[in-house]
Structure formats: C-alpha cells, structure tokens
Amino acid sequence: MSKQFHDKALINGCWVGAKSNKIFEVSNPATDEIVASVPDMDESDTEDAIRAASTAFLSWKNTTGRERAQLLRAWFDLIISKQNEISELMTIENGKPIKEALGEVMFGSDFIEFYAEEARRIHGEIISSPIKSKEMFVVRRPVGVVGMLTPWNFPAAMITRKVASALAAGCTCVIKPAEDTPLTAILLAALAQEVGFPPGVINVVTCSRDNAPGVGHKLCYSPDVAAISFTGSTATGKILYKQCASTVKRVSLELGGNAPFIIFESADLDNAIIGAITAKFRNNGQTCVSVNRFLVHESLHDQFITKLTEAMSKFVIGNGIDETTVLGPLINKSQFSKVSSMVKDAVSKGAKVVIGGEPHPLGKTYYKPTLLTNVNSSMQCYKEEVFGPVVLVKSFKTEEEVIQIANETRSGLIGYFYSKDLTQIWRVAKELEFGMIGINEGLISCTDAPFGGIKESGFGREGSKHGLDEYTYLKYICLGNLS
Q1: Backbone conformation region of residue 123, classed left if phi is above 0, alpha if psi is from -120 to 50, else beta
Q2: pLDDT for the residue numbered 6
Q3: In this structure, are strands 34-39 and 125-127 parallel, antiparallel, or unpaired?
Q4: Is the CB of residue 261 less than 8 Å from the CB of residue 296?
C-alpha cells in the first residue's frame, strides 16, 4: 500500500506532532513490519485538544440539525468512496481479514448515515401545564466536549458509532484511539476534515501505551470535558469511571463480556454451527460480543463437537491481505501470551484439547483455532473473556441448570441461544441477565438497535435513537406570567 494517510495527530484543524517530538511505531501484526510512526502525545497535548474542542463547541452547538446532517452525510459519502483504501489500511494495522475490514467500513459508515438522519429529529416536548399562567417545555441540548477512548478490535466502527451520534447531537470530541490502530482513526478524521467539519469539532490525540494512562487521566479530570465514552476492558473502565467522579461527568462504558452460547435440545444444529462460527471467530475471536462459553445440551454435545471441529479444521490462517484468509494473527504479543496462558491453564486443570491448543507454525502472534472440552469454572478462560480463537464447550441437562450457568458471571453484555421451542425462547430470553440477546442468530449488531450491557459490562447505549441520549441533556423551560 502506498502511503496515502496522515501520520500526525489532528488538533484544532491542524496536523501536528507531539510537543515533546516523541513518536511511537505502528506495526503490522501479520508481518511485524513497521507501518508508520505517529505522535506520542501526553497530557499537555491533550489539554490543547480539549481547549480546541471547547472553543469549537461554542459555535457548533448552535448549528442546526440540518447543517450537521449535511456534513455527516458528506462524510459518509466520502468514506464509501474510499472504502477500499480504509479497509486495506485497517487490515495492515489490525491484522483482520480484508473482507472483514471492508465489512467493518460499511458497518461503521452506516452509523454516520443513520445519525445524519437523526440529527434532524432531536425533538423536545411540550408539557401540559397545571397552572393557567404558565407554559412548560422540555428541550434537548448537547452536553459539550466528549472524550472518546476507542479500542483496537474495530478501529473504524467504534469511532464512527461514538463520533457520529455526538456530532449529530451538537457535541465536539477528542478521540484517543488505541495505540495498536491509530492510523484508521487518523484517516477517518482526515476525511471528515476534507468535507468541511470546522476546526476543533473533531480532534485526534495519538499516544503510546506508556502515555495512555496520562491522556485518559486528563480527559477524565478536565472540567472542560462534559462526557467520556469508553469501549475496552472492564478493569480500565472501572479506573476511568472512578476518575470521572471528580467532575461528575456523563459516562458511557461498553466493557468486556463473557458471552454464553446455549444450544437447547430442540435447536437446529446445523444453523447453530453457522451461528457459532460467526459469533466466535469474527476478528479471530477478538470482539466484545464473541462467545466465551458454549453450553450444549447433552443430547447434542458430541454431534456439536464433531461438526464444529470439522469446520474449524478448514479455516485458512494467514495474512489478512490475502482474500482467502479466514483468521489472521492476534493483535499483539500481549494478547498472544494471554490466550496461550489461558489454554495452558485450562489443560492443567483437566480440559481436553480436541483441536489446536498451541501457537500456529506461521509464528509471530498466530494461534491455532482451538476447541476445549471438559471445561469447568476453576479455569481462567471460563471466568474471563478470552479474546482469541478458543472454543470452550460444556454440556448441560436442564433449562434451569443452563440458565444458572449462563448467568454465573459479573459480565452482562450479550448472550446467545438456539431453540425451536417458542415458549422456551420467550422464557429464556427474559431470564438471561445480559443487555443483548441473540436467538437463533450469531450476528445481531446493527445501526438501528441499541448496543450495550449490564452489570460489569457497563452502561449506556450506542447505536439507534437511544445513542443520542448519551450526548444530550434535558432542559426544562417554564414560561410564566402569561395571563
């Protein structure tokens, strides 16, 4: 790929380096080659970005919904025209297969189109007054500057989903992309600048892993930042939540999961296999909605193992740029070590390796797709999100038993189950303690539906009309002495 992207950060409409002149390298996980070097910014640079966003907010908040919609629509159109360039860059810095990257660009751009339409529909209400001399109104107003901390697993969609709704609401933003994948964020910001978003409305602060805590601290503690939106680990989310208490910020957290995938006795097993592959292996298992625990009725357990093992054995592993690749590398050495350690821990505690269970011969951060049976709750991979291509399978006897097993987690992002029994479907959907439920379906995320979890998977919703709630507040206006 020829260099067609910026390698600077964006503050107040200018492409700038870090004040310290420090940089950090971005590498391709499939080859270990250095792709680019970008600014390693710190608290001082972040303060500049916050100041720029605060200044821009003074005018941006007073734009009309129609004006914001036109800019968002233009951004969407430009992204669609550049979809191949964006997806290729994403694959190079993230490692995901090029077809998945292209799918993410289309998925991510959908949020911009959706909120371009919603920008004109941020309505208030008129309240019937109990007093004749008064009229009562409620209007929605933008909260202000929003700090956005985004993950590496969806370098485009996690930015567009947050930014589009915030901009539609009339907010400005400071984006801190993940250190593994800053280039996609920079390119998206460059395209937004190209269509005419005013300086300071969108700012991108890049930094290394070493500087990330300081940048996050500045965003959370700054009195000029009205809200924080974070997608990432539960541990980091708790730190940010605590820091935001100092200024009582609006906070939206989309954190880790421990998703169950239940296959009941009445399930269509072939459809369940298709759903299992989709829900588990997208982005090599590195998604917050990836299945962590497969809970299979004892009558279907052996068939499920046989069919899924056969499907997994056919996966093509390799560089995501190759269009035949199904699974690319894990994002970095840290993630590779985590997955390897979890598998070793499970085996040491009695898990049986049906397929995989070790690094791939390609080396680097490639790991073989793995299926483990005889798993139990003492294993690290059972209790924590794996974020890798590792399938854990456990059998169950009764509906009551499996609901208890599924809910035995502090996470509550998403749960899946397959059944043909209509009464069971409704019963189980209500009993599962998760913010989202996929029934006979392994891919449920879409622009029009609210995305988010409960318990330690966070709070707040992204996508749908409810995504605007995170970036607006209700203002009650009472007009008196009218009689």
Answers
A1: beta
A2: 79
A3: unpaired
A4: no
Distances (CA, A) of 445 to 23, 252, 263, 284, 317: 35, 18, 20, 17, 25
Radius of gyration from C-alpha coordinates of the chain: 23
Candidates 254, 399, 462, 470; catalytic one: 254
Contacts of 19 by beta carbon, 8 Å cutoff, 6+ apart? 41, 42, 44, 45
Helix, coil or strand: residue 23: strand
Q: Strand 23-27 relative to strand 34-39: parallel, antiparallel, unpaired?
A: antiparallel
Among 237, 201, 165, which Cα is nearest to 461's? 165
Q: Whose CA is closest to 86, among 188, 205, 189?
A: 188
Q: Environment class of residue 254 by beta-carbon count within 10 Å: exposed (0-12), middle (13-18) or buried (19+)?
A: buried
Of 171, 207, 288, 381, catalytic:
288
Residues in the chain where the model's pLDDT stays below 70: 1-5
Give the contacts of 21 (CB within 8 A, at least 6 positions apart). none
> Rounded distance, CA 54 to CA 60, Å?
10
Query: Is 288 part of the annotated catalytic residue set?
Result: yes
423: exposed, middle or buried (C-beta count within 10 Å: 0-12, 13-18, 19+)?
Answer: exposed
Query: How far is 458 from 361, CA to CA, in rounded Å?
Result: 38
Model confidence, pTM: 0.96
Whole-number Å distance between alpha carbons of 184 and 162: 15
Q: How far is CA 9 from CA 38, 48, 190, 200, 241, in A?
A: 7, 12, 10, 12, 26
Dist CA 365 CA 384 (whole Å): 20
For the chain, the farthest-separated pair of C-alpha atoms sits apart, in whole angstroms, at: 83
The predicted-structure confidence for 252-286, as pLDDT tens digits, reads as follows 999 999 999 999 999 999 999 999 999 999 999 99
β-sheet bridge partners, residue 458: 254
Distances (CA, A) of 85 to 32, 80, 341: 21, 10, 36
Across-strand partners of 36? 26
Q: Tell me, yes or no, if 118 is annotated catalytic.
A: no
